[in-house]
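In the design runs reported in the main text, the only information available to the sequence generator was the tokenized backbone. The following block is the verbatim input for one such run; it is reproduced so that readers can re-run the procedure and compare outputs position by position.
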């Protein structure tokens, strides 16, 4: 696939504070890429550098193979949708969408045609004369997207655009945005701190922390194969604990030995281990039980029960459709492929 955006060794300082540390990644044409991380991790600064609102201290930014380090924002073939939407309250929906085209002094009949097409794309046809104050949050968000799309950018940058919406509408808009991106066939670079949002919408996710890229991968890779404890803890829920790789495919923890599918570690190397709650199996205690525990809490989550199980040296989180009662003694079991072993953080 063709790379449309490339960041090469981007560093950014604000006075003495280094915000981005040697950030490098590529964005393929028509890809939905998400920058994910906690507040202050550098994801929005990265987006603003791509947009041209900030300038990197060092490193190169390329667009379709050409360096655009000094190209002003209005000359870059991209548009940005902000969390606040930044709509003009004194203009109606149609004029908000047409604003950028009028600045370019495009002919009126072309403006009308482009605005109508943009309204159709975001499913707001017939609302062009509606005041912004009369729109719902989801409709305002779609106007902001239409205003960006009407300029026919090759890349659309979205900075937490669903942050102001309630949970139900936010989930609906996640589906709509992903569908929209596929239908119009342009590249989306999306910023969020919401893990579920990133997993739901993205083709590729870049997890950031303290200005450093922690992992780049598909949603499945990021969830099932986290590269370190930070990613494992930040993406979804997980049981994270320490153990020892005794040898290839042999794992030790809690004084017991377990089969796993991991290899390539040094013998007796200390490691971090993550097991997702849905991969922990509870059964009746038997003579084969290696890990014995007691259920200490049960919460019904609608599609499954979330149970905490206390063992001698760990508190397990378990997601299961089978209910075990509070106080019940259980056997905690994990299949070999459900252990994910990671090198200890340096």
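Verbatim output:
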């Amino acid at each position: 696939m063709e790379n449309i955006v490339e960041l090469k060794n981007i560093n950014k300082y604000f006075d003495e504070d280094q915000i981005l540390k040697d950030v490098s990644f590529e964005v393929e044409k028509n890809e939905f890429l998400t920058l994910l991380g906690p507040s202050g991790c550098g994801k929005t600064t990265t987006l603003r550098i791509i947009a041209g609102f900030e300038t990197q201290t060092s490193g190169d930014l390329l667009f379709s193979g050409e360096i655009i380090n000094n190209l002003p924002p209005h000359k870059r073939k991209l548009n940005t949708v902000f969390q606040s939407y930044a709509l003009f309250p004194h203009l109606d929906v149609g004029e908000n969408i047409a604003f950028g085209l009028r600045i370019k002094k495009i002919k009126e009949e072309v403006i009308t045609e482009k605005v109508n097409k943009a309204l159709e794309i975001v499913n707001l046809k017939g609302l062009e004369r509606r005041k912004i104050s009369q729109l719902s949050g989801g409709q305002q968000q779609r106007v902001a997207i239409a205003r960006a799309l009407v300029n026919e950018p090759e890349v659309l940058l979205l900075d937490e655009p669903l942050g102001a919406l309630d949970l139900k509408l936010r989930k609906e808009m996640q589906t709509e945005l992903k569908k929209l991106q596929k239908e119009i066939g342009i590249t989306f670079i999306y910023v969020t701190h919401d893990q579920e949002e990133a997993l739901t919408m993205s083709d590729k996710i870049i997890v950031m922390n303290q200005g450093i890229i922690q992992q780049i991968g598909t949603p499945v890779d990021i969830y099932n194969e986290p590269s370190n404890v930070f990613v494992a803890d930040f993406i979804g829920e997980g049981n994270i604990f320490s153990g020892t790789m005794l040898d290839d495919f042999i794992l030790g923890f809690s004084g017991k030995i377990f089969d796993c599918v991991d290899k390539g570690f040094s013998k007796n190397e200390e490691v971090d281990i993550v097991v997702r709650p849905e991969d922990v199996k509870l059964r009746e205690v038997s003579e084969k039980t290696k890990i014995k525990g007691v259920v200490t809490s049960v919460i019904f989550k609608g599609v499954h029960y979330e149970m905490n199980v206390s063992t001698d040296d760990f508190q397990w989180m378990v997601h299961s459709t089978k209910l075990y009662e509070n106080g019940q003694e259980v056997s905690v079991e994990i299949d070999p492929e459900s252990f994910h072993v990671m090198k200890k953080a340096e």
